[in-house]
């Protein structure tokens, strides 16, 4: 988090992590398409010719109101194993992480390997994974041979992170995941850095403003609650 | 990986970049020029700090004329100063005292104001004549000329100017976005390279440490083997000596069964001695303490000696041993005793694995090669010619599968373990042979024979080649020189 006291400006960094081809960039594209143009900048993608993320994607979002300004930079990491150092680089200073998993049964081991990679990279950066606001998204719910919703629900109930189901290519679950992450991150930052005091408004108000400025049709609470285990936002 | 957390270089992706500083100002000038060419209205781009970073410095004839009067000049300067000081949060039209106007609006990138664009002065479409204030200030000037020049100032509706400004904003946004993208791409790339380098350096250090440990373990193993072998040899010499004396009846006559037992003791003892000697040789070759005595020799003589030694053995087995070497004059500079051991081993091996009725043929030929990498610059000049004698020992025996051919040079490796029991052998001969040949700057390889059998191909460089390359002939990097170049001195095992 970067804080400019004088301008009452806070900059958050959210990172979408996950195995190669799990749909991190698709999430960002869908988010870009769903957020009102006035509240977002251009989606910056640094991809190779075959559409594989080379360095990262970045979507800048901005929320303004009541004399404060909240900027959110949403990043994706390159999922391919070879880009290990770039992943660490992008992960540096992340305020919250959304882990985008692939729902296909065949990808279960790749999801686990990428999660281990996330944990190792955070450790390399001197952070424990349990201290970082984290949510999990099971993407590609439209694919055949996927893990059942019941299975995910059971897993979600046992785990401590909110779990969201999504089909990023058609935008389903994308805003829910984003607000789930934003909500977890803001709550954590408020506890640790008194974010509401610094911005001069409560986190609820902040998230309401964000949902309104992004042009969401639903209240943000409904989006956050859409997680599979009933949400501990 | 390091134990402590990694601190990466602060990233351009996280920092609020002075984006206007990354933009090529000539590009912005060009952009302003092209819009000026289209509409005839001056355009200026100011950074948030107030400095200009794109400008079309054009003055309308009307403005030049206005500045010829003192009052006009004063008013004009006041207007320009006010325009420069005006940083509105959104687009505004700023009036000039003459009735002309400026369009001012902020330039934003990612919801942050980076500067402003000033379009003007232009004549609003509704302007017919000077304002009252203008008429007063310019009263001293020729009224007709003033009116004529005012009419020449480009006219535009405020909406049109707003559209021009919107277009300019979009173009600027694209330029800023690209500058931003280029900056983060290059900084990320640079950082990735640095981070990879750091990781690789760390891994290399670990590998080097592991390699050093292994090398030390290997040295210890060889030295252990050498010591143990040496200690084993001493009592074995006594066993062999006494069993030989017993079998020769020096200690009195033996019953037939006793004599057979003693012969077995002697035979097995001899085998054990061969194995221990082999192990000693191998470990000396591996740790680089084997001394060899290099002298001028003819390869044909060495091979002939080997053949004459082994002919009786081959005949006994019913294998034809053919000596067919033609390069009588080919001189080599080698340790003849060691090389003779090598060929004895190879030929003996060939005879051993060839059934009765088969043959083992020894041939030779001279091979000349250009040494060097063929894509090396100046290869035609730099390549040195090396000549070798290639000795081929071809048998018609059981053959060695292609996949196994490299491994037969490993110590104790047997293609088929049952063959050891059948044919005997220490399992060290070929391992030693390979190391000795390599130490001579030569090579050893195995090819298949047609229709069956194996061909051992040994190459030994000519005496001339060896003389040209000394002292590069060395097997192990930490070894002491393997060869004594003096003519005198014997094998100091």
- The average pLDDT score of chain B comes to 82
What spatial form of chain A do the alpha-carbon principal axes imply?
A: globular
CATH fold name of chain A: Rossmann fold
User: Regions of chain B with pLDDT < 50 over 5+ consecutive residues?
Assistant: 471-481, 486-493
Classify the beta-strand content of chain B into a percent band: 15-25%
- Can you tell me the overall shape of chain B? rod-shaped
Mean pLDDT of chain A: 89
Number of E strands of chain A: 8
Distance between the termini of chain A: 20 Å
User: How much helix is in the residues of chain A?
Assistant: 25-40%
At the first level of CATH, the class of chain A is Alpha Beta
Rg for CA atoms of chain A:
17 Å
The number of E-state strands of chain B comes to: 15
For the largest interface in this structure, which chains are involved and how many residues does each contribute? A-B, 32 and 26 residues
Structural class based on helices, strands and sheet pairing of chain A: alpha/beta
> What is the helix fraction of residues of chain B, given as a range?
40-55%
CATH superfamily of the largest domain in chain B: Histidine kinase-like ATPase, C-terminal domain
C-alpha Rg of chain B (nearest Å): 47 Å
CATH T-level fold name of the largest domain in chain B = Heat Shock Protein 90
List SSEs of chain B in N-to-C order.
Answer: HHEEHHEEEHHEHHEEHEEHEHEHHEEHE
Note poorly predicted spans of chain A. Answer: none
């Amino acid at each position: 988090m970067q804080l400019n006291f004088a301008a009452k400006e806070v900059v958050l960094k959210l990172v979408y992590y996950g195995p190669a081809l799990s749909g991190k960039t698709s999430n960002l594209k869908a988010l870009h398409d769903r957020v009102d143009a006035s509240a977002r900048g251009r989606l910056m993608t640094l991809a190779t010719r075959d559409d594989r993320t080379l360095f990262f994607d970045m979507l800048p979002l901005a929320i303004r109101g009541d004399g404060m300004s909240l900027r959110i930079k949403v990043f994706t990491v390159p999922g391919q194993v070879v880009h290990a150092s770039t992943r660490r680089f992008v992960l540096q200073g992340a305020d919250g992480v959304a882990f985008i998993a692939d729902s296909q049964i065949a990808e279960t081991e790749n999801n686990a390997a990428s999660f281990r990679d996330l944990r190792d990279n955070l450790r390399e950066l001197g952070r424990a994974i349990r201290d970082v606001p984290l949510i999990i998204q099971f993407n590609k719910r439209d694919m055949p041979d996927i893990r059942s919703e019941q299975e995910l629900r059971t897993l979600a109930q046992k785990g401590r992170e909110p779990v969201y189901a999504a089909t990023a290519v058609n935008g389903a679950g994308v805003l829910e995941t984003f607000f789930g992450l934003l909500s977890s991150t803001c709550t954590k930052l408020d506890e640790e850095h008194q974010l509401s005091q610094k911005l001069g408004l409560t986190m609820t108000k902040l998230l309401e403003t964000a949902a309104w400025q992004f042009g969401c049709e639903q209240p943000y609470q409904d989006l956050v609650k859409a997680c599979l285990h009933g949400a501990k936002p | 990986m390091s134990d402590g957390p990694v601190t990466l270089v602060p990233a351009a992706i996280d920092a609020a970049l002075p984006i206007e500083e990354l933009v090529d100002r000539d590009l912005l000038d060009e952009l302003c020029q092209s819009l000026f060419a289209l509409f005839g209205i001056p355009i200026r781009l100011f950074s948030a700090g107030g400095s200009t970073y794109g400008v079309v410095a054009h003055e309308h004839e009307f403005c030049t004329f206005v500045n010829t009067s003192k009052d006009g000049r004063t008013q004009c300067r006041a207007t320009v100063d006010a325009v420069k000081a005006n940083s509105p949060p959104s687009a505004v039209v700023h009036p000039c005292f003459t009735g002309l106007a400026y369009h001012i609006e902020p330039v934003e990138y990612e919801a942050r104001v980076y500067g402003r664009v000033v379009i003007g002065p232009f004549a609003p479409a509704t302007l017919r004549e000077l304002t009252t204030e203008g008429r007063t200030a310019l009263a001293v000037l020729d009224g007709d000329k003033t009116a004529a020049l005012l009419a020449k100032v480009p006219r535009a509706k405020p909406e049109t100017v707003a559209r021009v400004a919107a277009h300019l904003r979009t173009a600027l946004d694209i330029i800023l976005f690209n500058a931003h993208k280029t900056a983060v791409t290059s900084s990320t790339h640079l950082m990735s390279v640095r981070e990879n380098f750091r990781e690789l350096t760390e891994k290399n250090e670990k590998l080097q440490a592991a390699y050093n440990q292994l090398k030390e373990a290997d040295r210890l193993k060889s030295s252990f083997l050498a010591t143990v072998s040496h200690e084993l040899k001493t009592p074995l010499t006594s066993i062999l000596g006494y069993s030989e004396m017993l079998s020769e009846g020096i200690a009195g006559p033996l019953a037939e069964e006793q004599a057979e037992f003693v012969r077995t003791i002697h035979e097995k003892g001899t085998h054990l001695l061969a194995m221990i000697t082999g192990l000693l040789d191998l470990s000396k070759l591996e740790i680089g303490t084997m001394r060899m005595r290099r002298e001028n020799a003819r390869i044909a003589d060495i091979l002939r000696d080997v053949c004459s030694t082994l002919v009786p053995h081959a005949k006994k087995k019913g294998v034809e041993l053919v000596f067919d070497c033609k390069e009588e004059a080919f001189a080599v500079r080698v340790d003849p005793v060691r090389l003779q051991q090598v060929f004895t081993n190879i030929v003996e091996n060939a005879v051993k694995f060839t059934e009765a009725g088969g043959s083992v043929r020894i041939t030779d030929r001279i091979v000349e090669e250009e040494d060097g990498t063929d894509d090396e610059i100046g290869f035609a000049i730099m390549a040195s010619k090396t000549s070798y004698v290639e000795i081929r020992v071809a048998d018609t025996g059981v053959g060695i599968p292609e996949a196994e051919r490299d491994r037969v040079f490993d110590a104790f490796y047997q293609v088929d373990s049952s063959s050891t029991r059948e044919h005997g052998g220490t399992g060290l001969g070929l391992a030693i042979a390979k190391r000795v040949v390599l130490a001579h700057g030569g090579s050893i390889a195995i090819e298949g024979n047609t229709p069956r059998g194996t061909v051992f191909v040994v190459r030994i460089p000519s005496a001339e080649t060896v003389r040209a390359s000394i002292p590069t002939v060395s097997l192990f990097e930490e070894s002491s020189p393997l060869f004594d170049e003096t003519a005198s001195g014997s094998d100091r095992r």
